[in-house]
Amino acid sequence: MMQASLVWWLLAGGLVIAELLTGTFYLLMVALGCLAGGAMTLLGFSVAEQLAMAAAVALSALLLLRRSRFAAARGRQALNNPSNNLDLGASLQVAAWQGRRARAFYRGTQWDVELAEGENIASEWYEIKEMRGNLLIVVAKRS
Out of the domains of life, which is the source (predicted)? Predict the structure, then answer.
């Protein structure tokens, strides 16, 4: 019985170490499932019950993490981080505006473009400030 729980603890420890190398929280949630499986071993449950509990705890923890504000904020930050998105800061030319929206040729195709909040139509050249799906949010390019 102790050997089976040792496998669970070692697996959880390995996942925590792997988590430290990757920088996400997903492996940590799976490690929680392994800890639950180890606890079930100590309580004398069968292997099938241990696996079921480990899977249920890991899946529940993963779903809670995906729905948390932390995961949503991290996803938004990643999209608008120039290190992750090389389009941010790039220049494009907008020939004609229709209100605060336009179509512009960028990277070989037409894109929807929207003027950023507080910006005025100032020139032909604009800089990409943000991306929302296939919509480019732009500001007037400063010389």
Answer: Bacteria
